[in-house]
């Protein structure tokens, strides 16, 4: 497991899958299915009890992957994620305490933002790689295009409602570094352990990105 910056996280993969893992036994097969499809940056949401153990398992077994903790909403979770080996921490939003805490850690923090004021607040902490959440509900690519005219120093990871049908709108923007989403990981496929299906969907997503980005 190596140290990475937020810029390296964004550069490492044009797609960051948001992984909801209910059972730690699914962690490795799921991560390997995504990696087989060409995706090796992972956001494991802390919305489940199995998340921390899943981060630890994937970090240990897949040293070439970049493993992140998602939905981190307080410093306690932030620290637990770091202890498990998370290489980046990402949130749907931020709080003053999370921003302060992040300043004491080397592992990069990618806070979620939706407004120009939140973006400016993040910038004041030196954070310029941000999650735009929930992307589609907040106006999607047109909003990012408008906001980046004023704040061109920010790179975004739009997440929330991003899927194959609207991917092109986001990837057309220079301010979009990567996109987050779940469309290549249907919950039913995890439940039925259909790992080949997840590899297939990941491959398709990567091919689509390659064709859009040229
Ligand atoms: O918990 C978080 O921090 C999140 O990022 C919430 C969702 O998992 C993403 O918004 C993915 O949303 P969909 O791709 O629309 O399924």
TrEMBL record:
InterPro entries given in the database record: Aldlse_KDPG_KHG, Aldolase_TIM, KDPG/KHG_AS_1, KDPG/KHG_AS_2
CDD domains associated with the record: KDPG_aldolase (cd00452)
E.C. no: 4.1.2.14
SUPFAM superfamilies cross-referenced by the UniProt entry: Aldolase
Position of the signal peptide: none
GO molecular function: 2-dehydro-3-deoxy-phosphogluconate aldolase activity
Reaction(s) the record says it catalyses: 2-dehydro-3-deoxy-6-phospho-D-gluconate = D-glyceraldehyde 3-phosphate + pyruvate
Pathway given in the UniProt record: Carbohydrate acid metabolism; 2-dehydro-3-deoxy-D-gluconate degradation; D-glyceraldehyde 3-phosphate and pyruvate from 2-dehydro-3-deoxy-D-gluconate: step 2/2
Pfam families: Aldolase
Claim: Cell wall biogenesis/degradation is one of the keywords in the record: no
Swiss-Prot/TrEMBL keywords: Carbohydrate metabolism, Lyase, Schiff base
Assembly and oligomerization: Homotrimer.
Family to which the UniProt record says this protein belongs: Belongs to the KHG/KDPG aldolase family.
PANTHER family cross-referenced by the UniProt entry: 2-DEHYDRO-3-DEOXY-6-PHOSPHOGALACTONATE ALDOLASE-RELATED, 2-KETO-3-DEOXY-6-PHOSPHOGLUCONATE ALDOLASE
Record protein name field: 2-dehydro-3-deoxy-phosphogluconate aldolase
Annotated organism of origin: Celerinatantimonas diazotrophica
